[in-house]
């Protein structure tokens, strides 16, 4: 188990390297001269030259790359151009919002998606199955931003049940935090619930037709134990493999949702950064996203080996 | 149903839903299993052996199967119509099953201990610790070496033969009165086959349970059973004590099966095979369903479907010409 963890960590290193290089290339692949863009329209040639030197853009390419990695190793992501703070502190400020959103949405998605998919599989080809799969199809096909805006109109503007925007940190009261996050989280999870329900259904269908399910029934076990224990444990292995995709779409979707609900998270930060051409900031967020995806896939891999004794090394 | 019979099957007729409507997989199957008896069921692939066995515990997939006629009587109840709850108490406690493929019949993500204890906790209400102890004893009983270590392993760590032993341990955990073994050795190689059969024989003697052994191998049946039921195309064609059947088979199909058995004495090695193939469940055949393959077919065979006729106290045959001559002599 420890050996496997180390192995997986080792495999993650090249991916992280590639992500870092891509983030670096963002700077050099820009159309035009980044120093001119950063210094602004009215800058004098001297000022532009100053910016160029500050950013190290006057050095040879490989040297720039080397410096970039050196800074990364020291945890230096540079300073934001539009905000009066370092990239790292800007991201640290907004990370809790995005984590709240993604975490809450996954917490909503997992039980509902798995339950709905299992029920559909158990009652396959009945009206229950058709209903669940129909709703799931809606979930994956409705555009996220559209349903999100609609939900704001219904629940905040017309009914006035929930705040339409803004974020309340959890240390200012859990209830208030939940009220500010619940609608965005539900909107974010619609696609994922649909996706997960469909994955769970096909995994369950596969498992329910296996011989060991008949063995379980022949022992006198109830349907609940047969499906909830014998089938579910096996289906879970297949579901875990889709968890990586699930969490990744949650992070991707959070960019849109944060925008619609005006939540000050990483997603909103990067949109603002792109519009303001705040390149160090965009680079920083790119790196954070890259690391997050690598970490998620690592976690899924490890979870998978825990869930399936056949791939467990001891 | 005689006083000593444990399970009594009457006119069992099972149908499956297919694209062409309901097709009859087995029809009019009737036989008793006596307390402590040892019944062998033999027949070619597709003759309805598994369908019969699964019906006895109502283990067919729901919705796509139905019992058109008949009953399976056990302890004063009809298992085909008993409530699900009653049936669950009988499954695994009174009647247990071992299936053909030990590779796929065990749950890959649960330990051996888990899978044996489950039945014990369910039917005997023992604690988990006690169940674990019992599981180890059971593994010992089915001759798995190093049982106290093996008990915590997952099925994929065991060989096919070992897994089938685990399946048997699960089945006998609650000391059932009837063990149904559906081709328990078919998926195993020959030496392991012999070991598993020997184990089943010893366990039967030790626990005093009745065993219904299903096989398409007449050799296995000859060695094991006291009574043999021969099935063909979803029907019983002959039912006799094992010595009678091997000495004087009455049904042409049984004769064919015997002729196609490899001689143990090592004969010339030219194997006989019954010509033709087993008909599909819904294939229309006039009269006897074995008629098209039978070397002794007569006009009367095609006129009407033969009945299963008793030609002695313990011998039944479904063959119009054969039962007619024996009936008049
Ligand atoms: N679930 C099912 N749906 C439709 N038809 C079925 C089903 N199960 C069995 N049958 C049909 O019932 C007939 C008997 O099948 P069964 O499995 O009992 O044969 P068997 O004697 O056990 O053969 P084998 O030696 O291959 O195990 C076959 O014609 C088969 O096609
Ligand atoms: Mg079979």
From TrEMBL, chain A:
Subcellular location: Cell membrane
Entry GO CC: plasma membrane
InterPro entries recorded: BPD_transp_1_N (IPR045621), MetI-like (IPR000515), MetI-like_sf (IPR035906)
Topological category with respect to the lipid bilayer: Multi-pass membrane protein
Domain ABC transmembrane type-1: 95-304
Any GO molecular function: dipeptide transmembrane transporter activity
Keywords on record: Cell membrane, Membrane, Transmembrane, Transmembrane helix, Transport
Membrane-spanning segments: 12-30, 101-123, 135-162, 177-197, 235-261, 281-304
A Pfam family annotated for this UniProt entry: BPD_transp_1_N
Transmembrane among keywords: yes
Similarity comment: Belongs to the binding-protein-dependent transport system permease family.
PANTHER family from the UniProt entry: DIPEPTIDE TRANSPORT SYSTEM PERMEASE PROTEIN DPPB-RELATED
Name of the protein this chain belongs to: ABC transporter permease
UniProtKB/TrEMBL annotation, chain B:
GO MF term (any one): ATP hydrolysis activity
CDD domains in alphabetical order: ABC_NikE_OppD_transporters (cd03257)
Localization in the cell: Cell inner membrane
Keyword ATP-binding: yes
Main location: membrane
GO annotation, biological process: peptide transport; transmembrane transport
Top-level taxon: Bacteria
Sequence ranges assigned to domain ABC transporter in this UniProt record: 7-258
UniProtKB keywords: ATP-binding, Cell membrane, Membrane, Nucleotide-binding, Transport
Membrane listed as a keyword: yes
Membrane topology annotation: Peripheral membrane protein
GO cellular component: plasma membrane
TM regions (residue ranges): none
PANTHER family for the chain: DIPEPTIDE TRANSPORT ATP-BINDING PROTEIN DPPD (PTHR43297:SF2), OLIGOPEPTIDE TRANSPORT ATP-BINDING PROTEIN APPD (PTHR43297)
Family: Belongs to the ABC transporter superfamily.
Name recorded for this polypeptide: ABC transporter ATP-binding protein
């Amino acid at each position: 188990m420890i050996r496997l963890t180390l192995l997986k960590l080792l495999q993650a290193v090249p991916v992280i390297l590639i992500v870092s290089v891509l983030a670096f290339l963002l700077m050099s692949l820009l159309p035009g001269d980044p120093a001119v863009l950063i210094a602004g329209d009215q800058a004098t040639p001297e000022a532009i030259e100053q910016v160029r030197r500050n950013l190290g853009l006057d050095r040879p390419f490989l040297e720039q790359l080397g410096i970039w990695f050196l800074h990364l190793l020291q945890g230096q992501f540079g300073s934001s151009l539009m905000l009066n703070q370092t990239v790292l502190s800007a991201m640290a400020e907004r990370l809790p919002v995005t984590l709240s959103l993604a975490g809450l949405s996954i917490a909503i998605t997992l039980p509902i998606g798995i339950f709905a998919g299992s029920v559909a599989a158990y009652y396959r080809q009945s009206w229950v199955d058709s209903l669940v799969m129909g709703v799931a199809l809606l979930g994956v096909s409705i555009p996220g931003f559209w349903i999100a805006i609609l939900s704001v109109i219904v629940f905040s503007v017309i009914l006035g049940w929930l705040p339409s925007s803004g974020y309340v940190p959890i240390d200012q009261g859990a209830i208030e935090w939940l009220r500010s996050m619940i609608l965005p989280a539900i909107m974010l999870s619609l696609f994922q619930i649909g996706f997960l329900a469909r994955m769970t259904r096909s995994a369950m269908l596969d498992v329910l037709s296996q011989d060991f399910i008949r063995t379980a029934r022949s022992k006198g076990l109830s349907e609940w134990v047969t499906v909830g224990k014998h089938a579910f444990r096996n289906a879970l292995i297949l579901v875990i493999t889709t968890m990586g995709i699930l969490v990744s779409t949650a992070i991707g979707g959070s960019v849109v949702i944060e925008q619609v609900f005006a939540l000050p998270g990483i997603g909103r930060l990067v949109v603002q950064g792109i519009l303001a051409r705040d390149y160090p900031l965009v680079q920083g967020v790119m790196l954070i996203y890259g690391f997050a995806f690598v970490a998620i896939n690592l976690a899924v891999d490890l979870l998978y080996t825990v869930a399936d004794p056949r791939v467990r090394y001891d | 149903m005689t006083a000593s019979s444990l399970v009594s099957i009457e006119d069992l007729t099972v149908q499956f839903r297919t694209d062409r409507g309901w097709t009859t997989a087995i029809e009019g199957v009737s036989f008793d299993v006596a307390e402590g008896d040892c019944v062998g069921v033999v027949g070619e692939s597709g003759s309805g052996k598994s369908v019969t066995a699964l019906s006895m515990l109502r283990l067919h997939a729901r919705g796509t199967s139905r019992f058109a006629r008949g009953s399976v009587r056990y302890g004063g109840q009809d298992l085909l119509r008993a409530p699900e709850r009653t049936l669950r108490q009988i499954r695994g406690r009174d009647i247990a099953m071992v299936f053909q493929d030990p590779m796929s019949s065990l749950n890959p993500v649960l330990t051996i201990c888990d899978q044996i204890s489950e039945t014990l906790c369910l039917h005997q209400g023992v604690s988990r610790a006690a169940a674990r102890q019992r599981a180890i004893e059971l593994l010992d009983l089915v001759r798995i070496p190093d049982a106290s270590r093996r008990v915590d392993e997952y099925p994929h760590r065991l060989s096919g033969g070992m897994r089938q032993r685990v399946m048997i341990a699960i089945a006998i955990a609650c000391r059932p009165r009837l063990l149904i073994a559906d081709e328990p050795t078919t998926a195993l190689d020959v030496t392991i086959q012999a070991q598993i059969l020997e184990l089943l024989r010893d366990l039967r003697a030790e626990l005093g349970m009745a065993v219904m052994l299903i096989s398409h191998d007449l050799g296995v049946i000859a060695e094991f059973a006291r009574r043999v039921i021969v099935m063909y195309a979803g029907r019983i064609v002959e039912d006799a004590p094992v010595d009678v059947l091997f000495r004087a088979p009455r049904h042409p199909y049984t004769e064919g099966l015997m002729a196609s058995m490899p001689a143990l004495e090592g004969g010339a090695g030219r194997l006989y095979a019954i010509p033709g193939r087993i008909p599909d469940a819904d294939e229309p055949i006039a009269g006897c369903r074995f008629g098209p393959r039978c070397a002794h077919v007569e006009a009367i065979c095609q006129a009407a479907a033969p009945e299963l006729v008793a030609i002695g106290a313990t011998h039944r045959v479904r063959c119009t010409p054969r039962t007619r001559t024996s009936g008049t002599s």
